[in-house]
Amino acid sequence: MKNKTILFLRYLLILVFVFLSFWTFFHPKKTETNILKAIVADSANDRVIVELSKKYSSDFNVTIEANDFESARIAADKFESMLDKKVFAGKDLSFSNAGSILEVYKKYYGNLLSNNTANEIRNGKYKDVSKQAMHRLYQPLGINIIPLEDDPFLLFDDYLSSLSGVNLSGEGEYGGKYYVFSSYKVKDEISLSPVLLNDEISKLIKVKDEIKKEYKDIEIYLTGTPIHTFYASSKSMAEINVICVLSLLFIVFIAKFYFREYKILLPVALSLGFGTLTGYYLCSLFFDSIHVLTFVFSTTLIGICVDYSLHFFANGTDLNKIFKSLTISMLTTVIAFLILLLSKIELLMQIALFTSGGLMSVYMFVCLFHPLIAKKMKLKSFDTFDIDKLNVIKLSKNARKVIVVLALIISTAGVLKINFDDDISNMYKPSDSLMKAEKIYSKVSGGNITTVFIPVVGDNIQEILENEEKITKSLNDNEFYSLSKFIPSINKQKENIALRNLLYKNELKNYAVFLKSCYTDKLLEGKNNNEFLTADELSKIKEGFLIDDKTSVIVLKNADLKKVKNANIIDLKNDISRYVKLCRENCLKLLIPVIFILYIGLSFAYGFKGAYKTALPSILGGFFSIGILGLFNQNINLFHTLSLFLIAGFSLDYSIFRYSSKDKSKETRGAVLISCATSVFSFLLLSLTSFKLISSLGFILAFGLTSAYIFSILLIDNDDGTNKQRMV
User: Fold this and answer.
1) What is the pLDDT of residue 592?
2) Can you name the residues that pair with 466 across neighbouring β-strands?
3) Residue 305: what pLDDT?
4) What are the tens digits of pLDDT across the range 66-96?
5) Which candidate among 47, 58, 437, 578 keeps its CA 20 to 30 Å from the CA of 624?
């Protein structure tokens, strides 16, 4: 009966796995890289913030540097001709259409007024407008875009200069060099896939290198989030690939050193792959997309499955010897992580489901298939390394207590000094070359980065424009830029025509003495062609401001926010920090329930005293690692907080197996040591990577697991009943 039950469960597990595999194959889910989308709530305002972040994270810029404009223009045209238009879409400016924007504006010059000039005419300050026009007229380097007889006050020049310092020409000079620049957007289907994005940016860099070889005296700078993402991820992936190879070699070494048998690597790899895929399939079943951080944290935690396999083989493939401790280890870890489902934060919920599903499947694989694999491969008894040869320190019970108390004092002192850092930008430091490129682009384009926005809603484009104009009416031209500033509403254009005619009526003859009477008479007649500039004629500019068909954004630049009435102001940098802080606080709030559940669950298996002994090392390991960071004035961020769950998930096994195995301590001590060693070795390698997020995570996990392992030795009497704990 028992064999029939096991056989049934094997077939059932395979059937469920196959079903999930086929479902995921026919319902593939994209990988989400925008951290905001994973941690924000689902309100309308939050969705705007997510879309804003996503919008600006897919933009990149190309800047051509040369010794003269002609060389820069030739290289720029060559670059654009080689650009894959199926992947990269031109934005507000591109090398080929910068001049065409001015041509469109010139067609409607009579409909366009700067905000400041419109307000002055509206308030009857005609003399002030004349003075400003006279200054523009006699400016030494001034160029009249529209002939004076058609625009004597140079109102069109005034309008162009009001566009918040944005360089419409696509050209500029800085530091004795000449530049041509352009902005592009990576299309959504590419930008949403890290693999595809890196592949396309790699091709883009090859195009850049080819052009630099052809034109020796130029330099090409690529900037923007996709470029930073490519360089950061490429370097990190190269480092992680090296780490994976070294970790694999270390596991192979452990297999030969401890078990003196390479064959056990196959079932270990099978269980790891089975658990990872099952976790991924479950997330695909319940979520529209899977965040990249879910893979980072969850696949790390599923490394526990290596512990399950190592304990199985360390005990001579006798599942009965470890079944209870294996089951308790799995249940307590899974239940603790399922608490994250209560956070209502998608990232944490995904980690909970991925991890819990993966661990349960690994547990079932070890229980149902490892005995069968071991039998087929004739893996039963091993000439394992004598772990007692590593016993170098023997401590009395009192000495162990003193060490634990000292660790608690140090931890508490560090925790009291903790400072939290919720600024996600502090997790990444760009290279000097990228920083130089960003500085050059900002200088020559006038595109100073800002993160303060006002979302504006309307049923159609004209209503959006009119709503924007109501909000910005009291702002100075240098305080904002918006779609309505580049493309005024039709009503605003009609008002501008009327204001222009009002200025001519009251001031033209006093001001324009340099014009022949036939020209002044024509202007005073106020005849217009009744044509209006529309958003469709400047579609690239329109796309730059629209979030969706019914929502645009006004970008504020050092504006006096007191002037803005009845508008929702979004400070992207502060809002991102606020959401990261909220996620971190939710994690911290869940730690107490997790500890409580662990204690209650362990109490059913080992009693209250046993639960205390098995849970305490993991808790102390996390507490000590955070305390050490605080003691050395290292700020604590969201990822440090998440690592506390990982430390608990990994290190709880050390205590459970050590406490449950008093009659077979030699095998247990060996399995626990090599489990800890493989994990710590991998995380120590991660701590050496250049990407701060990964390196900080690797360090705290390595330090936390080592601490928890040592605490499990110090706090659990497990030496064949002799009550003398050995330091391994």
Assistant:
1) 86
2) none
3) 72
4) 988 888 888 888 888 888 878 887 665 555 5
5) 578
Question: What would the pLDDT profile of 452-493 be if each residue is shown by its tens digit?
Answer: 888 898 999 999 999 998 888 878 777 788 889 889 999 999
Give 641-676 as a 3 state SS string.
HHHHHHHHHHHHHHHHHHHHCHHHHHHHHHHHHHHH
The rounded distance, in Å, linking the Cα atoms of 664 and 657 is 10
Q: Is 116 in contact with 472 (CB distance < 8 Å)?
A: no
How far are the Cα atoms of 345, 431, 447, 476 from residue 690, in angstroms, in the given order?
29, 11, 29, 44
Q: 191 with 57: CB under 8 angstroms?
A: yes
Query: Do 42 and 345 meet the contact criterion of CB atoms below 8 Å apart?
Result: no
Q: What angle do CA 74, 79, 85 make, to 5 degrees?
A: 135
| Residue 148, C-beta contacts closer than 8 angstroms, at least 6 positions apart | 137, 154, 514, 515
Residue 313 near residue 264, CB atoms below 8 Å: yes
What are the structure tokens assigned to 267, written together? 């079932």
Strand partners, 63: 181, 221
Rounded Cα–Cα distance for residues 170 and 263 (Å)? 64
Strand 726-727 relative to strand 570-571: parallel, antiparallel, unpaired? unpaired
- What is the C-alpha to C-alpha distance for residues 105 and 679, in angstroms, rounded to an integer? 63
**DSSP state, residue 527:** -
Q: Is 383 exposed, middle or buried (0-12, 13-18, 19+ CB in 10 A)?
A: exposed
pLDDT tens-digit map of 679-719: 888 788 878 777 677 777 788 888 999 999 889 888 885 44
Helix (H) or strand (E) holding 623, with range, is helix 572-631
- Is 288 in contact with 29 (CB distance < 8 Å)? yes
For residue 18, the model assigns a pLDDT of: 93
pTM: 0.73
Between 684 and 628, name the one with better pLDDT: 628
Tokens 């107490």 belong to 592
